[in-house]
Amino acid sequence: xxxxxxxxxxxxxxxxxxxxxxxxxxxxxxxxxxxxxxxxxxxxxxxxxxxxxxxxxxxxxxxxxxxxxxxxxxxxxxxxxxxxxxxxxxxxxxxxxxxxxxxxxxxxxxxxxxxxxxxxxxxxxxxxxxxxxxxxxxxxxxxxxxxxxxxxxxxxxxxxxxxxxxxxxxxxxxxxxxxxxxxxxxxxxxxxxxxxxxxxxxxxxxxxxxxxxxxxxxxxxxxxxxxxxxxxxxxxxxxxxxxxxxxxxxxxxxxxxxxxxxxxxxxxxxx
Length: 271
Fold this sequence. Notes:
Pathway: Porphyrin-containing compound metabolism; siroheme biosynthesis; precorrin-2 from uroporphyrinogen III: step 1/1; Cofactor biosynthesis; adenosylcobalamin biosynthesis; precorrin-2 from uroporphyrinogen III: step 1/1. By secondary structure, the chain is α/β, with parallel strands linked by helices.
């Protein structure tokens, strides 16, 4: 893939670049991420990095899968970090490619610390997070002057795979009119129960966005009281985002079928 005539950084041997690949649509890759793919000797990629994005790698690059998916055998985080160090010490130009942004619920900080402790030089390349780009593609704005001036992002499970137990759910619900929960499907029932217990009404608008920005993206709008039953009936599956707040109601205007068809055509052309 040819880049415009920009002054882009040179990927030096022995370095690791931690890059975000965005939420899925190859068109949402940054120029820095494409530049990294064009130069890397080894690309270690996550489960949410699609084939269309990997095809941007230079022809002789080695592609290594290091994805983590709930309920399936996955490499341990320590082993991934050690692999990055090992390859860099061997003089390789190592690209660690993550879905979304590496520093937004992506374990990028853990890997960067491991590289720092081992004396490996590294670069961080931000990416478009699914909670921003994915909801935009779904026709759900994160903010609107008539509904909210605050947004809270949280993860649906912590390092142990359970719903985070250190959150002050009541304070969060009081402070933020819009909540975006990553990796929401595994514990959807419990997440909804916590939000209801914290004071949110069952009538609160809620939506699930599955496979955000991809051609097969699905958007289910509902209410907090019905979202679990509706998700089960619709067969919504991971990966999916849960968004709760009045902005969900704007999907009726921004999530038009003609707009969605345009987005899907863009994704298919890129792949």
